[in-house]
Amino acid sequence: MLIARKNSRRVCGPCAGHNDPYACPRCGNPRSYMVRGLCDRCTLHDHLDTVFGALPATAVGPYTRMRTALAECEQPRTALNWIRNSHSARLLADLLAAGRPLTHSDLDAMAQGGGLGGAQSVDYLRGVLVTYQVLPERDELSARVERHLARVAKRSPEHALLLQPYVRWSLLPRARRAAQRPAGSKHRIRWAYTRINQASAFLTAMNEQGLTLADATQHEVDTWLAGNPSTRYTVRDFVVWAARRGHSRPLLVPHRLKADPVGIDDDSHWELLQQCLTDTDLPLDVRAAGAVLLLFGQHLSRIAALPTGALSTVDGHTVLVLDRTPIRLPKPLAHVLAELADRPPLSGWAANSPRRWLFPGNRPGQHISGTVLARRLTAHHIPIRPARTTALIQLAQDLPPAVLAPMLGLHVITAVQWRRRAATDWSAYLETRRTGTQPADQ
Fold first, then answer.
1. pTM of the model
2. pLDDT score recorded for residue 280
3. Are residues 200 and 288 in the same domain?
4. Structural domain contains residue 370
5. How far, in Å, CA of 267 to CA of 319, rounded?
6. Dihedral-angle region of residue 36 (phi above 0 means left; psi in -120 to 50 means alpha; beta otherwise)
7. Which of 191-200, 358-367, 418-427 has the highest mean pLDDT?
8. Do 309 and 189 form a contact (C-beta atoms < 8 A)?
9. In the structure, what pLDDT confidence band is assigned to residue 13 with cuts at 50, 70 and 90?
10. Is residue 168 part of a domain?
């Protein structure tokens, strides 16, 4: 049997007597590329039968919605490629062959044990199962942090008695509170991972010198910090917690110095904003993300995690909720965001999953990452940090911190700092004007 290929007029045997030689012999749909003489959707049905057919009748129920959604998805090629080629799909087939419904605990055990594709494949599969409601949503931040803690404790069991209470009673509660903000949990997971790793590294360094945490002095801390100052300052969180709980003497780890943010001039800032609002040659997602960045100074991780529900209509006006305060949008920006929300996803899992995000990503049910969004903006010459700095300074000049903080999702202390920076910049501007006109006045 021959296989019909794209741009070829050779057709397979079953199609020889069909009225349309370029239609699938099973369903009659047009086909541009076929596998075993069938279109993508029919081939997908066959693969789904193979994967889910191993389940006994008593265990099929939770997977019915997932199988139907995959079979009827707008882009069958995406689901077909996943089933054929991915480690996570092979992992799903192996698990379903066991004949019982999966649980989060089963996947956690597989992630800890390694195996096919490792923890990354397990987490990808978990995302698919949660997206299609086979598994319930859970506090993924807590689960991932606990799993990482278990890995670190397994490598260094002598540190577990200190790291476990630090993570569970200090690190996790703060991470959960911060994860409720629109930026989501991914950033907070990395934040927690870094602090666990640095705490373990510091304890290991002290052990290598024959010291316990209680024996460590400021000299040992300073020496360890000097070894790699760019990353080790995050141990401050653990050192402060240990001193407060009586596990060590008071030790000083200074905050890592940050360079003062540098903005762009006002003319360039408004020209970029005008380009995002009016230039239809730019990709729509770049225009929308760039406009929110330039107008509201939002961090890209928060822009990437904007849900579709953040955009709504109140009293006939389009509003955007970045944190707690609905912000009435100017018409050009409202039009760009509304067009983005109404645009169907072009390809990938975003086209096969329920629409939850203004900026959908390439993982099932997930939004785009801030890193990918940053690359897209940079590719179109939008300077991210300078643009955010200028936007926040302009807003801080006009709005008091008590208004700015809940509107943009900033901590009130951060809003006060931006207010002071804006006042400093304004004072410097006035001083420059006064100095520059003084000779003429004399």
1. 0.76
2. 93
3. no
4. yes
5. 26
6. left
7. 191-200
8. no
9. very low
10. yes
